[in-house]
Specification:
Elements: H1 10-30, E1 38-43, H2 58-76, E2 82-88, H3 92-103, E3 114-117, E4 120-128, H4 132-140, E5 152-156, H5 166-172, E6 178-184, H6 186-192, H7 198-208, H8 214-220, H9 225-243, E7 248-256, E8 259-268, H10 271-282, E9 291-293, H11 303-326, E10 332-333, H12 334-344, H13 353-362, E11 366-370, E12 383-386
Parallel strand pairs: 1-2, 1-5, 2-4, 5-6, 7-9
Antiparallel strand pairs: 3-4, 6-8, 7-8, 10-12, 11-12
Organism: Rossellomorea marisflavi
Protein name: Three-Cys-motif partner protein TcmP
InterPro entries: Tcm_partner (IPR031009)
């Protein structure tokens, strides 16, 4: 599935990231030999399933990714993947069109709620017609005391800020192995923070996870647009970290005509999920700022061009950061270095970590390697020393 046939519209970037992430995520969860061999994918604002130009929306992307995984499993001799896809769409007309689009993929249902496919027996689609709040509350109340959802990924792509109370994410993320990809409607949030209407202020407060909105108002009042954005992002990120007990929060800014429209927030407790999402997001922005601006030309989306033009600069920066972290320390494992790159730098592992280590080795800043057979290789278990 390709989103790169021409300059990407700002609204399609989030779908490209969703697609790029869920393809490997499903496999990492289901094929984990120590895991439950099944996963749940949630789409809280599914829409009709297709755009006016015929391109797939989020629910069809998720379903087709599951079908592709099933086909791969058959070809590879693996057990068929158990994937549950829970969709929700409140608008009655969109809900009806989504039913048809799911049916067009070969799924059948007796009640237009539970859909199964005779050729893909372990893939189940459930479709609801509720508000997002009711949908999530009903889903979470099915979890027994002391129990947890199976490994899950929830995509939330609302039309505004009034329908995504922060408390829902707090409750959802209490589950083990739960991840969230949220489209934070920045433009409207920023515009209405200081609105005099009490109802709107309360909606912002609930949307942001605030006890009171006054502190945020004081942080943004009289500030430049950049300062306001920084305050809003920091407030939301801190609330995700503290109230949801999230280990890792990564955001990706999406601009239209130079103005910030949306900010994608990825929330996970798993460093492997963070590593995977950083890799997906990096492919949409070569600057290291995790920003997509639709004014940029096609080169912004061409990862090979990004690597050719920017790779040396970024590798040098990463090499400096790695050396600064481990300078003078002995018996440092490749796993410790990779953990640092994943959790403490802007860089994905792919295409950056090992080239940075090669630069350090070439300059003599790391030596005394154990656990490898070749120069400039860093397989699992490799140990090295960093000079002073």
């Amino acid at each position: 599935m390709s989103f790169f046939n021409g300059v990407m519209d700002h609204s399609k970037v989030k779908l490209s990231i969703l697609n790029a992430y869920t393809i490997p995520w499903m496999r990492k969860i289901v094929l984990n030999r120590y895991g439950p061999k099944r996963c749940l994918v949630i789409d809280g604002f599914s829409g009709k399933g297709k755009y006016e130009d015929g391109s797939d929306g989020s629910p069809l992307i998720l379903i087709k990714n599951a079908l592709d995984f099933y086909n791969q499993s058959e070809d590879s001799g693996w057990d068929p993947p158990n994937i549950y896809i829970f969709l929700n769409e409140l608008d009655q007309e969109n809900h009806g069109e989504l039913i048809q689009n799911i049916t067009d993929l070969g799924f059948r249902s007796e009640d237009n709620m539970l859909f199964a496919h005779e050729d893909y027996e372990t893939i189940i689609v459930k479709l609801e017609n509720k508000s997002f709040e009711d949908f999530m509350v009903d889903l979470l109340k099915e979890i027994g005391e002391g129990e947890s959802l199976i490994p899950s990924f929830c995509f939330v792509d609302p039309f505004g800020f009034s329908s995504t109370p922060f408390s829902l994410f707090v409750d959802y993320l209490q589950n083990e192995n739960s991840e969230l990809l949220l489209n934070f409607i920045y433009e409207e949030t920023n515009r209405f923070i200081t609105h005099p209407n009490e109802t709107i202020r309360n909606q912002i407060k609930g949307h942001m996870g605030l006890v009171t909105i006054d502190e945020l108002i004081s942080k943004v009042s009289g500030k430049t647009p950049v300062e306001r954005k920084k305050a809003i992002i920091e407030t939301y990120t801190n609330n995700l970290m503290q109230q949801c007990e999230a280990e890792f929060v990564r955001n990706f800014e999406i601009k239209k005509s130079g103005r910030t429209k949306l900010i994608l927030f990825h929330v996970t407790k798993n460093k492997h999920g963070l590593a995977l999402m950083k890799n997906c997001m990096w492919k949409h922005d070569e600057t290291g700022t995790y920003t997509f601006d639709d004014r940029s030309n096609l080169q912004q989306l061409d990862f090979e061009e990004i690597l050719n033009s920017e790779k040396e600069h970024h590798i040098e920066l990463l090499a400096r950061q790695i050396f600064g972290e481990f300078q003078g320390r002995r018996r440092i494992s490749i796993e410790s270095i990779e953990d640092f790159v994943i959790t403490e730098t802007i860089y994905p592992l792919t295409n950056f970590c090992k080239p940075a280590l090669k630069e350090l080795e070439r300059d003599g800043r790391i030596n005394n390697f154990r656990g490898r057979r070749r120069v400039n290789s860093y397989p699992a278990g490799t140990i090295m020393d960093f000079i002073f």
